[in-house]
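Message: A physicist's question: would you kindly supply an amino acid chain plus fold tokens?
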Amino acid sequence: MSSVPFHYVDLRAFCYATEDSARVESALRTLTPEEVDIERTESEGHHGDRILVLSTRLERADEIRHVLAQLSTLEESDREGLLNELVDRIDDNTSFFLTLSKQAAFSGRVERGDGITLRGKVEAYPATKDRAIEHVRDALETL
């Protein structure tokens, strides 16, 4: 894949007080190239508990290709499900949303689930939802 369908990809995971931040970072790194920096921001939950937000923005084509390569390891049924849900996963601002399992990522696997949020700004000219769906569909079908 020579071109990438995204301007950038944001990845984010929350680390709750009961979780080990090194393990959550390890899960997030399953999707990122090694050299990418992961930002840490402290926040507070509704009951005053600590929440650490781990996030990164990938803007270089090679970094985005790495994420797409990781997504290519999704089960065939998960990829088919994504293709069927693209209308709901891409908003009017041409952003693509996907959640992945934090637990599976910690084990080195990429699975749909909860814990890691992926948001990709789809490259589409003109920037319409229909065009964005077409670009993401093409990318997912070639994985």
Observations:
- The helical segments are 21-29, 61-71, 76-89, 102-106, 129-141.
- The mean pLDDT is 95.
- The chain is about 35% helix and 30% strand.
- Residues 38 and 56 are 5 Å apart (CA to CA).
